[in-house]
Amino acid sequence: MKTGSVNSSIMDMFEQGKVLKICAPMVRYSKLAFRSLVRKYNCDICFTPMIVATDFLRSVKARDSEFTTNERDRPLIVQFAAHDAQTLADAACVVAPFSDGVDLNCGCPQRWAMSSGYGACLINKPELVKDMVRHVRNQVDNPNYTASIKIRIHKDLRRTVDLCQKAESAGVSWITVHGRTAEERHQPVHYDAIKTIKDSVSVPVIANGDIKYLRDVESAHQVTGVDGVMAARGLLANPAMFAGYEDTPLQCIWDWVDLSIEQGTPFTCFHHHLIYMLERVSSQPERKVFNSLSSTSSVIEYLQNTYGTVQDIET
Fold first, then answer.
1. Where in the sequence is the active site (predicted)?
2. Which residues fall in the annotated binding site for FMN?
3. Which of 14, 222, 240, 277 could bridge 41 with an S-S bond, Cβ 3.0-4.6 Å?
């Protein structure tokens, strides 16, 4: 881990009046190489994958595998799963020199997380969330360091508003709202609920859910008035989405190859990202061949033969 320069607070970015474009925390995927890629294409803030705070504190091996960064990887938010205020604050203190804020995951709907007291079950524990936010604010020795939460919504939206207002009273920096309940998966996002939450608090609110193109960023802002928009699957499919590309441009694909080689990305991760990026621009027979490749050299050869290099396009 390298220490980044202490910069001004992310909160200053919200003051600039533009809708912030944010890369979501994605297990296995929003790691350093991918964050480096989306930053080349107009992504304003990146989140790490969710890290279980107790494991992170207990094991040096977990810290080294779960959290890698460099001095260009800013602004960076480290997302933790936690259900204990002191544990979250301790984890925040460890990563504070290398990041700009921590985020408490209150939205993960997976069974393992919920049964361990993490993720979306926390939206039903507003006092605990309030306590966790307060501990981070009180114990990280940097007034610019942010403490945010990422939530899902309740069926009874009054409970969500209450949660957000309690978090605000504890000093939460901003709130990301995935506009679905913990039970919903692919149902339409409840943008009306996100608007209600935005209208109920004075801290910045980020909308999350079904952002697949740059035009979705603007429409989400228009409907809800949010201060920023967070994308997950949309960025996996097209890391250049925030720069206005409809599909992944060839330059972006080769940027990913370069970054992955430079940073030593494991083959499985390198290959999976390309499978996502190529899905919309390749035929089924092409995908079948590409998905079966098993080495970096065979992937590079396939890309050169099928799509050409960036130099081929420029000549």
1. 108 (proton donor)
2. 25-27, 79, 178, 232-233
3. 240
